[in-house]
Amino acid sequence: MSSSGSTYGDIHRYEPARESTAAAIAIVLLTVVEVAFVFMFAYGLVSGWGLTETGNMFLGAILAVIFVDLAFILALYRKEFLPDVVIVKKRRRKWEDLYIREEDVDGEALGDGTWDTVKRAVYPYYKR
Question: Which InterPro entries does the record cross-reference, listed alphabetically (predicted)?
Fold first, then answer.
């Protein structure tokens, strides 16, 4: 579904999410695995697995698995349950966001007043 509107904020394209049952079941199973690894990590911290070298590496591996599993859960959710929406935005040139005022578009001279600024920084009681 797309619209021909070209004003700022119009929805240009909208594709509804698939919402498949297989993805929902996969997310639930990955969440169960996630909770199991979180409890294993918490138990390892409380029981002192991190005090030995191999235990510390094991806790790091469990933490890595937790984040990878979370990444798969979020990727599946984003792909299967969020709609694909493209909205019309205002197009800007690259340099427009760099300047605050319109008269600053051309920039300013590099060395204007630089020596006076340095003298005031070194000797604050500099008199003109």
Answer: DUF7318
CB atoms under 10 Å from CB of 41, counted, come to 19
Q: How far is it, in rounded angstroms, from Cα 34 to Cα 107?
A: 53
Least Cα distance to 40 among 26, 55, 51 occurs for 55
Instruction: Take residue 22 and report the two structure tokens written for it.
Output: 């297989």
| Whether residue 100 has pLDDT greater than 60 | no
Domain boundaries, the chain: 10-103
Residues for the chain: how many in total? 128
Is the pLDDT score of 117 beyond 80?
no
Q: Tokens 């909205």 — which residue?
A: 87
pLDDT tens, 6-53? 666 677 777 888 889 999 999 999 999 999 999 999 999 999 998 998
